[in-house]
Amino acid sequence: MIILNNAKPIDGGITAPKGFKAAAVRAGIKESAPPDKLDLALIVGDVPCTAAALFTTNKVQAAPIILSKQHAANGTARAIIVNSGNANACAPNDTANALKMAESAANALGIDTQDVIVASTGVIGQELPIAKIEAAVAGLTDSLDSKGSEAASKAIMTTDTFAKEFAFEVEIGGVPVKVGGIAKGSGMINPNMATMLAFITTDAAISAEMLDKALRVNNDFNSVCVDGDTSTNDMVCVLASGLAGNAPISTEGEDYSCFCDALSNVTLNLARAIARDGEGATKLITCNVTQASSKEAADAIAKSVVSSSLVKAAMSAADANWGRILCAVGYAAGQFTVDNVQLTVASKKGMLTVCENGKGVPFCEETASEILGEEEISILVNMNETHEGSEGAALAFGCDLTAEYVRINADYRT
Amino acid sequence: MIILNNAKPIDGGITAPKGFKAAAVRAGIKESAPPDKLDLALIVGDVPCTAAALFTTNKVQAAPIILSKQHAANGTARAIIVNSGNANACAPNDTANALKMAESAANALGIDTQDVIVASTGVIGQELPIAKIEAAVAGLTDSLDSKGSEAASKAIMTTDTFAKEFAFEVEIGGVPVKVGGIAKGSGMINPNMATMLAFITTDAAISAEMLDKALRVNNDFNSVCVDGDTSTNDMVCVLASGLAGNAPISTEGEDYSCFCDALSNVTLNLARAIARDGEGATKLITCNVTQASSKEAADAIAKSVVSSSLVKAAMSAADANWGRILCAVGYAAGQFTVDNVQLTVASKKGMLTVCENGKGVPFCEETASEILGEEEISILVNMNETHEGSEGAALAFGCDLTAEYVRINADYRT
Questions:
Q1: Alpha carbon A291 to its chain's center
Q2: Are strands B164-172 and B175-183 parallel, antiparallel or unpaired?
Q3: Within 13 Å of residue B263, how many CA atoms lie on the same side as its CB?
Q4: Coil, strand or helix: which one is A399?
Q5: Which residues of B279-304 are buried (b: 16+ CB within 10 A; e: fewer)?
Q6: Where are the beta strands (DSSP E) in A150-300?
Q7: N or C: which end of chain B has fewer CB within 10 A?
Q8: What 3-state class would DSSP assign to B305?
Q9: How far apart (Å, rounded) are the C-alpha atoms in residues A308 and A304?
C-alpha cells in the first residue's frame, strides 16, 4: 500500500464511508464458474448521492456503459448493480437487458431506475441471462450490509487473483471524511481516459461538479497498462452520500484538496493493485518519469515503458535489459530528446543506474538481477530535460509478461 | 507467397537483378552464437546506384541509422554492409564504429565511404567488436558472388527462424526488369513509417526521386506488427543499378506503375514473411479491412486488430473470440462507427462470418476452430461505412502470441 499526504488507511472498503451498504450473491451468470463464485453485486446509498463517472473511450460501448452514461449525466445516483461473467456487450438484447437490470434493482430498492448505475464485465457477445439476475435481486437487497464491501469486491472479479479494496480517511474542517473503493482488473486493461471497473464511495458532502473534477484529476487508472487492450466496458463511478457532516465542498480550496488526498490514495492503490494482478503477472512494475519536457511527454513515456512487451518480458526474468527500456522511451509520442536519459532500476533491494546520457554504463548484473527479482520493482527514467521537481513527471503501473498470460487468454471463453 | 498484378516470381533474391553481388561471413560478433552463424553481409552494386531509404521513427536512433541517413541523403549509394548480433546502439564508441564499418567496406571495395550504407541489428548497448568486423571484411569482399543473396539473407537473421528472400520480374516497355529483396524481422517489430531491416535491389533505371516515392508508397513493412515495439535500428534501403536497359523512369506513368508492381510484390511478401516469423509465432494473421470511412481509419483498424495481445492470444488457440476483435476495432484511432461492422474469419479451410452489424451471430465453433487452426489465417473486417471497393481499405500482418514469445524475450541478452 502507498500512503500519500495525511490520509489514514482504514478498513471497510466501499462500506467504510457513512451511508453505504453493499451485498453480493451468486446468480449463476457464467455456468462454468466455480459453484461458490459470487457474480452479482449491489452498492446502495442510504440517501440520494451526488455521483460522477468516467467511461471507456472504446468506440464499441457495451450496453451498460451507454445506459449508465445517461443515468449518471444528472450528477446523482443511489445504487450500482454490477455483474461479472458476462459483459452484456454486442450481444442479443443487450440494451433491453441492461435496462432490465437497472429496473430490477430500482424496483427492489424502491428508487428511480434513473438513479441506478449498471456495470457488467466478462465475455463479449453472449446474451446476458437476465432472468437469473432478476431472480437473484431479491436475495441481493435482503443481504445489503454495512460490511458488504468485501463480498462486492469479490463478486466483480473475473480472472483477478485477489480482491481489490481500499479506504482512507482525512479530516475536512475538523470533520472525518472517508473514501472507499473496490476495483476489478486483470485483462483487457489499457484504460485511456476512462478505466476498468472501479466503484468508489465517500461520505463527503461535495457538489456533483467538484466530485467530477476530483475524479478526473485523480483518475490513476489511466496510468495502468496490463496488455494494451482498452475494454468495451471500462467504468469508474463514485457516489458521495454527504453524511460525513463536513461543510459542503463546492469550489476548489483546502477542503477540496483534503478530499482529493483521500480519493487519490484510494485510486492510486486500486490502480497499483490492478497492475500487480495483471493476467499471469508475477510482479508490479512502476515507471517513474522525471524532468521530462512536459507532463504530457512524461505520461507518454511512463506508459510506453510499462506497455512494452519486450520490457515486460525482460522484467519477468529479472533481466536489466535497459536497451529495451530506452527503446520504449524513444518511441513514446511527443517531442523530446533522449541524449540525457538516465535509467535506474530499483526495488526494496536497492537501486542501480544502468544508463547515463542515453548510453549504457557498466553495472553488476547480479545486483541488477537481485533488485529486479522482487515482486515490486521500479524503473526510474530521468529525462534530464528540465530541472528537478518540474511538472514533467509521471507514474505508470504495469506488470511483467509471462507465459501464463498467454495460457489464460488463449482459452478464455470456455 | 502472394502474387499481385503481372509480376513474375523469380529466384535469386537481391542478386537476381543485374549488377549486384552479395556475400556473407562469420565475423564472430556475438560470441554465444552457434559457430556456423553468419553475421556480416555485404551487398554491392557493380556500378554506382540510385538509392532510397527509410529509417526508424524511434527518437533513440542507433549510430548506423544516423550515419546511413547522411549517406543516403544524396540519392546514390553502392554498397550495404550489415551485421547481426549487435545493434551498435547507445553503446560505447557507437558513432566511430559505424563510420569505421563504412570505411572498412569502402576501402576494400575502392569506393567512397559516402556510398556505403551501414546497418546493424542485435543487442542494444554493448560495444560493437569493430576489430572483428574489420578483420572479416577482406574475406567478405573476396567472396562476393552474383548468387550471394541467400548467404546475405541468413547473415542478417537474429531470432528469425527462416531466411526471407523474394524476387519478382516485370516488363517495362518490353524490357525485363527485376526487383529482389531480403529482410530480417522477428522481434521488436512495429515499424512506424520506417521499418525493420530490409534490403532491396533492382536493375531498373529510375531516378532517385521516383525510387524514393515508390519505396514510400510500397512500404508494406508499416503494416506489420509483431509486438508493438518500434526498434532503434529499423531500416529499409533500395539500390537501383539501372542495368536492365529500360527507358529511365523519372515521372509517374505506366513504367513507374510497372516498377511499383514488382516492388510491391517484394515488399508485401517480405512483410508477410516477417509477420509469419514473429518471435514464438505459430501462424500468420492477416487483417483485411474494407469499406472504412477513410484509408487512414482502415489502416488504424487493421493495425489495431493484428496488434491486440488478446486477439493474438485467442488466435494461438484457434479461438474465434470475435468480441476481442471488435474491441480492438473499437479502440483504433479515428472517427468511425462500429454499428455496421461485419467480422469474418477465413483460411484455406473456408470462411465464416461471426459478427454482423456489430453483434455476434450464431456460428459453428468447430468450423471456426478448423478455419483458425491453419497456419495462415485472415480476419476480414467490413466496416460497411462506404461502398464496396472504396478507398477505405487496408491490410495488416501480424502473428499469434504464444508462451514461446515470452520465453525468447525473457532471456534475450544471454
A1: 26
A2: antiparallel
A3: 33
A4: strand
A5: bbbebbbbbbbbbbbbeebbbbbbbb
A6: 164-172, 175-183, 197-202, 224-225, 235-240, 284-290
A7: C
A8: helix
A9: 6
CA distances from B150 to A408, B12, B109, B309, B393 (A): 40, 8, 21, 33, 34
In tens, the pLDDT along A291-324 reads 999 999 999 999 999 988 889 989 999 999 898 8
Confirm or reject contact between A278 and chain B (CB < 8 A): no
Average pLDDT rounded to a whole number, residues B363-386: 95
Identify whether B195 is a catalytic site residue. Answer: yes
Q: Which of residues 101-160 of A touch B (CB under 8 A)?
A: 123-126
Would an 8 Å CB–CB cutoff place A403 in contact with chain B?
yes
Taking an 8 Å cut-off on Cβ atoms, the answer to whether A360 and B321 are in contact is: no
Edge to edge, what strands does the sheet with A376-382 contain?
Answer: A224-225, A394-399, A284-290, A376-382, A342-347, A350-356, A359-360
- Complex ipTM value: 0.73
Q: What is the mean pLDDT of residues A118-136?
A: 93
- B104-149 tens-digit pLDDT: 999 999 999 999 999 999 888 889 999 999 999 999 999 999 999 9
**Element holding A258 (H helix, E strand):** helix A254-276
Q: How far apart are CA B84 and CA B396, in angstroms?
A: 26
- Cβ(A409)–Cβ(A279) under 8 Å? yes
Give the pLDDT band (50/70/90) at residue A46. very high
Q: Which residue is associated with the grid cell 574489420?
A: B134
Residue B386 burial (10 A CB sphere; 0-12, 13-18, 19+): middle
C-alpha cell recorded at residue B297: 481509419
Bridge partners of residue B163, in order along the sequence:
none
Q: Which residues contact A107 (CB under 8 A, 6 or more apart)?
A: none
Mean pLDDT value across chain B: 90
pLDDT tens-digit map of B264-303: 989 888 988 888 888 788 999 999 999 999 999 999 999 9
Q: State how far the Cα of B114 lies from the Cα of B48, in Å rounded to an integer.
A: 12
- With 0.90 as the threshold, say if the pTM is over it: no
Residue type, A308: S
**CA-CA distance, B148 to B4, in Å (whole number)?**
26
CB atoms within 10 A of CB B346: 19
Residues facing A45 on adjacent strands = A20
Say whether B176 sits in a helix, a strand or coil. Answer: strand
Q: How far apart are CA A328 and CA B208, in angstroms?
A: 33
Contacting residues of B for A323, CB less than 8 Å apart: 87, 89-90, 123-125, 232
B156 contacts B196 by C-beta, under 8 angstroms? no
Identify residue A397 by its one-letter amino acid code. F
Give the side-chain half-sphere CA count within 13 A for B317. Answer: 20
